[in-house]
TrEMBL record:
UDP-N-acetyl-alpha-D-galactosamine binds at Y42, D127, V128, D129. This is Histo-blood group ABO system transferase 1-like. One of its GO terms (biological process) is carbohydrate metabolic process. GO terms for molecular function: hexosyltransferase activity; metal ion binding.
Length: 269
């Protein structure tokens, strides 16, 4: 693997307020990672996210966590290993959780152009309401990678929850589709992530103008993009799992990044 400046992970979360966060990893071959935390309620996830990332994520590499948030003062101080740093990037908030989630594409696109292109080689974009629970290293890195959604890795493509209304820019025909990718874990080189997030954001702008919102929001647009721009690596659901919703099948020996239980109604409203 050759990389000039780093790998990156982006993870985000935001509830009623807007807060987001990213990470960057710098090393001889540095990665970058990012998280979005918008809103006070999603801020409760950030500490465990950072603590477990320090334990499992790109250990031994130089990492920058970019935290996008509307509440910079509330970002927890978590001790970071040498060569790892946290950068807080202030962003605006949106009233609806769906808008917070969808606007991640716009934020990553803008910050990629403004600074990530210069600062890191790879971006990893992840949900913040999660924790790392096993090793996650440079094996995930590739020019463009997506992750199989843990609820759909065994499903037939006709049953994927793709957007099926032709009026939406995220529309996918019944007979099309390779995989159903999860919205909470994707990434790649900064150039590829810039392209992906720009296209997805523009598609959401068109949808809004046409008064339609894709069924799974940014995840629907991510799926449409990855159908026509094939990822160079597809990660198994080991890389994003939800133990509350799903029983771990015996062939999945490790769960590396798992959902932290949350009360959806309470946290989102
Ligand atoms: C694991 C998984 O399947 N994740 C996807 C799923 O999200 P979830 O159903 O897990 O939604 P969620 O509540 O985690 O929201 C997605 C993310 O947006 C951020 N956030 C959201 C609201 C808010 O007020 N503040 C805030 O910071 C935060 O980083 C959060 O993790 O569906 C969403 C779209 O419907 C996105 O595609 C998510 O990536
Ligand atoms: Mn989530």
């Amino acid at each position: 693997m050759s990389s000039r400046r780093g790998y990156g992970i982006l993870n985000w979360f935001c509830p009623s307020l807007f807060f987001c966060c990213c990470w960057i990893l710098f090393n001889a071959h540095p990665p970058f990672s990012g998280v979005l935390v918008v809103g006070l309620r999603y801020m409760v996830f950030l500490e465990l996210f950072l603590q477990t990332a320090e334990k499992h994520f790109m250990v031994g590499h130089r990492v920058t966590y970019y935290v996008f948030t509307d509440r910079p003062a509330d970002v927890p101080r978590v001790p970071l290993a040498e060569g790892r740093q946290l950068v807080v990037l202030e962003v605006r908030k949106y009233a609806r959780w769906q808008d917070v989630s969808m606007h991640r594409m716009e934020m990553i696109s803008n910050f990629s152009r403004q600074r990530f292109l210069r600062e890191v080689d790879y971006l990893v974009c992840v949900d913040v309401d999660m924790k790392f629970s096993d090793h996650m290293g440079v094996e995930i890195l590739s020019p463009l990678f997506g992750t199989l959604h843990p609820s759909f890795y065994r499903a037939a493509h006709e049953d994927f929850t793709y957007e099926r209304r032709p009026r939406s820019q995220a529309y996918i025909l019944r007979e099309e589709g390779d995989f159903y990718y999860v919205g909470g874990f994707f990434g790649g080189s900064v150039v590829e992530v810039l392209q992906l997030t720009t296209v997805c954001h523009q598609a959401m702008v068109v949808d809004r103008a046409n008064a339609i919102e894709a069924v799974c929001h940014d995840e629907s647009h991510l799926n449409r993009y990855l159908l026509y721009h094939k990822p160079t690596k597809v990660l198994s659901p080991e890389y994003l799992w939800d133990e509350r919703m799903l029983q771990r099948p015996p062939f999945l020996r490790k769960l590396r990044y798992v959902a932290v239980p949350k009360n959806h109604t309470e946290i989102r409203n």
